[in-house]
Amino acid sequence: MSPPGTDLRERLHQRGLRVTPQRQLVLEAIDRLGHATPDAVCAEVQSVASGVNLSTIYRTLELFEKLGLVRHAHLGSGSATYHSAASAAHLHLVCDGCGAVDEADIAVAQDLVGRLRSAHGFTPDVEHMAISGLCAACSKSVS
Amino acid sequence: MSPPGTDLRERLHQRGLRVTPQRQLVLEAIDRLGHATPDAVCAEVQSVASGVNLSTIYRTLELFEKLGLVRHAHLGSGSATYHSAASAAHLHLVCDGCGAVDEADIAVAQDLVGRLRSAHGFTPDVEHMAISGLCAACSKSVS
DNA sequence: CTTACTGCAAATATTTTGCATTTGG
DNA sequence: CCAAATGCAAAATATTTGCAGTAAG
To answer: How does the average pLDDT of chain B come out, rounded?
Structure first.
C-alpha cells in the first residue's frame, strides 16, 4: 500500500498540475465523509484547517472528477454529492420520507443493466444512479 | 372519454380550489410538451397566452403534483422535469454524452424492485428514477 | 521566474416567499 | 363579498466566473 496522497501527487504531476494544501484537504475530507455536498466538504475542510473558499471546493471537485479520483451522484432535489472513486461501487437509495441515504450493491441492478443494453442499446452508469422511494421505517409509518 | 379539462375541474372543486386560466394553460402545456422544466412550461404557456408568471408556474406544478396530475423526475444536473401523470409510467434514460432522454418500460426494473424490497426493505419509486449512461449512438463514438 | 491556483466579490441561475391586487365562485 | 390565486419584486440557494494577488515547482 502506498502512503495516502501518493496517488493524488502522481495524477497531478502527470498533467503538469500542482499539489496544493487545499487539494489535499479536499481529498481527505471526501474520504472521511463518504458522501458529501460541496458545502459539506467545505465545512469539513474548515474544521481541520483555517479555511478554503467554496469556489475552490467546486473547482477542486470538478478537477478530481476529471482525474477519476471522485464521482458525483444526484440524490433528490438538493445539491449533488461527491464520493471517493476508490470506494466500492454502489447504488444510492434515497428515502423520500426521511431523506436517509442507503447503499445497495450494484449486483442488484445486473438484470436491469442487461435489459437496458439489449432493449435500448443504452449503457447505464449504475454508480451514478440514485433511486428514490421509501425506506423500511418510512414504509411502515405510511401504511 | 370526458372532455379535456374535466378532470382538473373536478379535482380542484373537490378541495375548494379554483379553476383559473393559468392552471388550465399549465396543464395543457405539460400535455403538449411531454417532459418539461418549469422554465420550459413557462415559455410554452406564453407562446399561447400573453403571460403567466414563473412563480405561478412553480406554485401550480407543486399543486398539480399534490393532486396527482403530474409527476416530476430529476434528469441529471439541471432542473427537475415535470410530466403528465396520465401518461404511462416509465423510466428515464438520460445520455451523458448527448443529453438525450429516452424512456423505458418500468417492467425492465421489476427484478431490481424485488431485490431492493427483499434485501433492503426499500420500496423504490420507479417512475422517479433517472438513469444516466450512454445511449446507443454515443456508446459507439466513444469506443 | 513562470503560470497554475486561490480568495474574493460579483454575476448567473434556480426556486421560494411576502404582500398588495385581482378574481373565481 | 371573501377567500383563493396571481403578479411582482425581493430573498434565499446554488453554482460559476473575472481578476488580482499568492505560491508551487
So the answer is: 91
Domain B6-84 CATH assignment equals 1.10.10.10: yes
pLDDT in tens, A74-125: 887 778 899 999 888 899 999 988 888 899 999 999 999 999 999 999 999 9
Record the cell numbers describing residue A133, joined without a space: 422511494
Q: Where in chain B is the domain with CATH 1.10.10.10?
A: 6-84
- Smallest Cβ distance to B104: which of A95, A120, A131? A120
B115 touches chain A (CB under 8 A): yes
Enter the pTM of the model: 0.89
- Cβ atoms of residues B106 and B98 within 8 Å: no
The CATH class, in words, for B90-142 is alpha beta
Q: Is the CB of A25 within 7 Å of strand D?
A: no
Cα radius of gyration rounded to whole Å, chain A: 17
Nearest to A71 by CA among A89, A53, A46: A89
8 Å CB contact of B131 and A129: yes
